[in-house]
Amino acid sequence: MTEKEPFIIISNVCKEFDGKEVLKNVSVVINEGEPLGLLGRSGAGKSVLLHMLRGTEEYAPTGGEVIFRVAVCPEYLEREGAFEGVHPAIGSLEPPSKVGSVCPSCGSRLELREISYWKDREARKRIKKRVAIMLQRTFGLYGEDTVMYNILQALESRNYPADERFRRAYELLKAVRMVHRISFPASDLSGGEKQRVVLARQLALDPFVLLADEPTGTLDVKTGQLVHKALRESTKGGMTLIATSHWPSVIEELTEKALWLDHGEVITYGDSKTVVESFEKQVGEIGREERVKVGEPKIQIEHCKKYYYSIWRGMVKAVDDVSLTIYENEIFGLIGMSGAGKTSLSRIICQVDPLTGGSVKIRVGDRWIEVGRVAETGVWLSWAARTEGTGEHAGTRVAMLHQEFTLYPENTILENLTSCIGLDLPMELGRMKARYMLRSVGFSEAEVEELLQKKQAELSVGERQRIALAQIMMKEPAIAILDEPTGTMDPITKKFVAESIRAARENLGMTFLIVSHDLDFAYDVCDRIAHMQDGKVTSIEELRIA
User: Fold this and answer.
1) In terms of pLDDT, which residue wins out, 336 or 65?
2) From 84, 222, 382, 389, which residue has the greatest number of CB atoms within 10 Å?
3) Residue ranges per structural domain of the chain
4) Which of 194, 200, 239 is nearest to 36 (CA)?
């Protein structure tokens, strides 16, 4: 295909939620096989546009039109109702470059049709079967099934020939560098590994459009590069990729064209490199603090081990003889690739998982409380729970923001920040505190007032992430563990989060443990950094300890 065919035409599209415009007259032509990047800060409208292209009912446009130009079999188009009642196996539905090719079902030549995506319900159902989506932080795997079986199920769902399924599944897993995990249960995988299996599952569906919403936002650099390579390879067969990312460099690497959105409006469209350069001019660097003075030891980790036996993997040493001291009021970073042991160690500290050997102690006043051995101590520290048998529960609060966090979907944001997390405050005081915390994670005063009465479904993923961080800070824990806190954030939002972490340290006297693969953010925010690999701490860097 020498000249790329227009494939998706988005014309003056608008979208409102509760009277607020989140997309305003967005227009762009997406050519077949030409990767498009959607760039913009959290809440810009990127995810809304992706869901609209996916055909999610709640994201139907309130104005404008989305047109898919597709090659279709004329045999059933000539029937009354066109797509209505047609079995998915009958007739072909292909991208426009296939016009003139032979339909494998009936032998007719495929013809070009321009389909109004949101006006033709039956056509939309057919097109949706060829549009795959990878969502931010949503892994969507069958946890108890093996990696191979997850891919086989996807192939079966599209009626892939039974005798070819194992070969195709192997090819897909090889493309995303997951052949070495074929027999592992999906629940045993790290976050980065899960994301690669999700990509393989989506490619198994043979989409002509792949919508990737922050496909590598929560992955370390090396793992992200593997996914990027797989995405680039997948487009060589003619698939059209539409991707969002908070990393301008990812947009430049993955896509040829880019659309910059801000508050639902198109700022500019063009070659990815040019658009990225314009976007980066608006983004300053996160300011570094001068050297800081920290307090006495707060967390003492000595020869900590977390071993477990897996039928599929044998003996797994998730945490292998780790010793660390984290000081009061310190911002401490745990850095490493996916599967290095960062999250496993953090889950021991907040008592989600028990340890197998060694000890982890947290200082409460003048006492040291051992965690990770619930049966022996009767102490439970995670989720800001009260320590039974002591009057010092306020000082023992350990809160964790998980990589796979969620809000209460049926409750308002105000309720999520107060009653849903057990805060028993007078209504007005709760509202005032919620406003303060939302401002501290980068929302403007006007945005805060709108947010308080909204629900999770009305927010972008970046907005949800900042609210989850505010939710943690509402509890005023002594220790906050943040697992990939910037995973899907744009650079501007990262600045707000960095400032809010520093402010919480200064104003609330909090100690932070930041688990991340985002080296730039960690170096800019943390006082010290421990590098982890294969369950071990390989080095500790002092950055700003006075």
Assistant:
1) 65
2) 382
3) 6-130+207-281, 297-542
4) 239
